[in-house]
Write a structure and sequence with these properties.
By secondary structure, the protein is α/β, with parallel strands linked by helices. It has 8 helices and 8 strands, in the order E-H-E-H-E-H-E-H-E-H-H-E-H-H-E-E. Helix 3 packs parallel to helix 4 and helix 4 packs parallel to helix 6. It has an 8-stranded mixed sheet with strand order 3-2-1-4-5-6-7-8, sandwiched between helices. Helix content is 40%, strand content 14%. The structure holds NADP nicotinamide-adenine-dinucleotide phosphate. NADP nicotinamide-adenine-dinucleotide phosphate binds next to helix 1.
Length: 245
């Protein structure tokens, strides 16, 4: 069997970088996709110091030219893609995690958030799909959040009830819809598609207030990237446990 190839978006820092490290240590070749070349190369050097086979690919996920270039590059170099981790994401609303922005959401913020957290993932995934279909066991991991769960948002007793940054939350709900639809579209293939909630993790996005470190925060992505043939597809998972949509 040929060596597995994984592409991770936003892999220069945070959960994406740690996921690259953990998957790389399992002997998988990692394509570190990052929008900033300098940060991408710094990440690659750190991974290589850890003995990981990694290479840098410049990819702003909202740039459709770069998305097509990513396809062309992987197609010509590897001819397949085994693992796609849609990790890149943003939270750009004013307000902390404990606020509700539903009545004050700015349309430009909403648009930009959806462009990065939802539309770009659909575009990148569908562009790379022909390469993932060439893998013996393709795995697509969409970095969602528990904050995309409508079931939990509508339950006043749930731990996330008070945390309602509308643009971010709705973008993850939309991403979850893509997970469900794509998994159904690919049900007859060897490809598995799942949404991951990493936990509330100490990163630039998660803030220092988060209780989890990146080592644990990357575990759900790694687990879903390495699912066996009997593993789930079309699910919403945090550390092996299913979350309600
Ligand atoms: P982070 O440390 O802020 O990292 C985000 C990554 O996404 C960075 O590499 C960033 O690149 C990249 N990115 C943003 N926009 C991009 C674009 N247009 N093109 C390419 N890359 C882009 O955040 P994180 O906490 O590791 O988050 C990773 C994922 O987990 C996100 O999808 C997030 O929503 C999700 N998540 C995180 C938490 C948490 O508590 N941390 C909880 C639930 C879900 P730059 O360095 O260039 O900005």
């Amino acid at each position: 069997m040929s060596k597995k190839i994984a592409l991770i978006t936003g892999a220069n820092k945070g959960i994406g970088f740690e996921t690259a490290k953990q998957l790389g240590k399992k002997g998988i070749t990692i394509i570190v996709a990052a929008r900033n070349a300098e940060n991408g190369h710094t990440a690659i050097n750190k991974l290589k110091e850890n003995g990981i086979d990694a290479e840098f690919l410049q990819l702003d996920v909202t740039n459709t030219t770069q998305v097509q270039q990513a396809f062309d590059y992987i197609n010509s170099k590897y001819g397949k893609l085994d693992i796609l981790i849609n990790n890149a994401g943003i939270q750009i609303e004013n307000g902390d995690w404990g606020t509700n922005t539903a009545t004050v959401t700015d349309a430009n913020v909403l648009r930009k958030t959806f462009e990065t957290n939802f539309i770009s993932i659909v575009t990148l995934t569908n562009t790379l799909l022909p390469l993932i279909k060439k893998s013996e066991a393709g795995r697509i991991v969409n970095l969602s959040s528990i904050l995309g769960s409508l079931t939990l948002h509508s339950d006043s007793q749930s731990p996330i009830y008070a945390s309602k940054l509308f643009a971010y939350d709705a973008s993850k709900t939309a991403l979850n819809a893509y997970t469900v639809h794509l998994a159904a579209a690919l049900a007859a293939t060897n490809i598995k598609v799942n949404s991951a909630h990493p936990g509330w993790v100490k990163t630039d996005l998660g803030s220092d207030a988060a209780p989890m470190n990146v080592t644990d925060g990357a575990k759900t992505s790694v687990e879903l990237a390495l699912l066996g043939a009997n593993g789930p597809t079309g699910k919403y998972i945090h550390l092996g446990q299913e979350l309600p949509w």
